[in-house]
Amino acid sequence: MIGVLYISVGFPVLQVQAEEEAQVDNLQLYAQSAVLMDGESGRILFEKDGGEERPMASTTKIMTCILALETGNLNDIVTVSKEAARQPEVHLGMKEGDQFYMEDLLYSIMLESHNDSAWAVAEHISGTVDEFTSLMDQKAKKLGCNHTNFVTPNGLDGKDEDGIHHTTAKDLARIMRYCIMESPQKEAFLRITQTKTKTFQDTTGKKQFTCSNHNAFLDMMEGALTGKTGFTGEAGYCYAGAVRQGDKTLIVTLLACGWPNNKYYKWDDMKKLVQYGLDQYEYRQYWEEALQNGEIRLLEAGKEKEVKDSTPQEGNLYNDGTVNAFLNISTTDRQKRILMKKTETIEIQIQEQDTIQAPVEKKQKLGEVTLLLNGEVLEQKNIISGDQISRKDLLWTYRQIWKTYAL
């Protein structure tokens, strides 16, 4: 039999606090889909239809850029094809046969959202756009983005056998988090997307181009880290961005955030969601909070558990006795943290064997402790035996004789 104990630890929630929190959580946003994510953990702090599949316009280029950084060479020479040159505005204005260094085209893609540059890079990396969008889909799946379908590398509306070009606010946040927190090319991604102005030439030096960063949010809020705008007739205005203030990194994604003439709606939503994250959330060390509970402290110190022989019908081949059940909470565990509301609580689920039968090996699993936050598993740890109860053998017999007759 396994016994299960549920406990909540954290700070008490006053009724007034709960009412105020409910009012704050009812954020009025323009975007039809929105997500606020903790960059450190990937935890969703707020969402509005975050799982709804929608076209994402040029926020697509976030994936195009990171794939080019990870799989290409910045010094590669990219030759412009006829199909790349015919991509519609917004475009750099390249001509078939023009050649550029790939790094320069990444600035073109991320600063001014040039569709021809994205197409040219995609063809250079994979040979064809279809092969590149397949690579984009594969990368998305690896990041846990199961509701994303890339049809074009520049975000223009399109359709294939898997449906329209689309993502969700959640998936887009996962992609942005990867780019700035986990990718081996995260520093290069941030360097490119934070650049205010970039001037470059084609490889002949005869044509010169200047790209200015169209991400106005970089100058709107302290700690603005990165971002990418987007718009198509199907997608509406879209945005994916991040802010870092103190030890918090907050990621916001917005889809279908208005249509002309409402291009500034996204900035209002962005500021509102970031401020919500800054005001309402704080980092808390969840194992330290769990140790406020007496049962967890007892398990950390070692809790004595009775052990019964599992072979009485064979003449008791094992000793009855006790073992210490331990929960190993290391110094590193105590420092683990997650961004939580001040009023949120950690739920502790303790599962222990009601009856422990010999034999028992040292470090044998005797149960487990699960920490949950809003019903989702935060972390699990095994309760293990600190002792061993083994079979009665010749050595055990000699020890018993010695104990009996040596006195």
Give an overview of the whole structure:
- The protein is of the alpha+beta class and 407 residues long.
- It has two domains: 128 residues, no CATH class; 231 residues, 3-Layer(aba) Sandwich (Beta-lactamase).
- Helices cover 32% and strands 30% of the residues.
- Helix 2 runs parallel beside helix 5 and helix 5 packs across helix 6.
- The longest helix is centred in the C-terminal third of the chain and has 16 residues.
- About 3% of the residues have low confidence.
Question: How many distinct folded domains?
Answer: 2
Shape: elongated
Radius of gyration: 29 Å
Measured distance between first and last alpha carbons: 41 Å
Number of strands: 20
Task: Classify the secondary structure makeup into a structural class.
Answer: alpha+beta
List the helices and strands and how they pair.
Elements: E1 2-10, H1 15-25, E2 33-38, E3 44-48, H2 61-71, E4 77-79, H3 82-85, E5 99-101, H4 102-112, H5 115-126, H6 129-142, E6 159-160, E7 163-164, H7 169-182, H8 186-194, E8 197-201, E9 208-212, E10 224-232, E11 236-245, E12 248-255, H9 265-280, E13 281-285, H10 286-290, H11 294-301, E14 303-309, E15 321-326, H12 331-335, E16 337-341, E17 345-353, E18 356-358, E19 365-373, E20 376-385, H13 394-405
Parallel strand pairs: 14-18
Antiparallel strand pairs: 1-17, 2-3, 2-12, 4-5, 6-7, 8-9, 10-11, 11-12, 13-16, 14-15, 15-20, 17-19, 19-20
Helix pairs in contact: 2-4, 2-5, 4-5, 5-6, 7-8
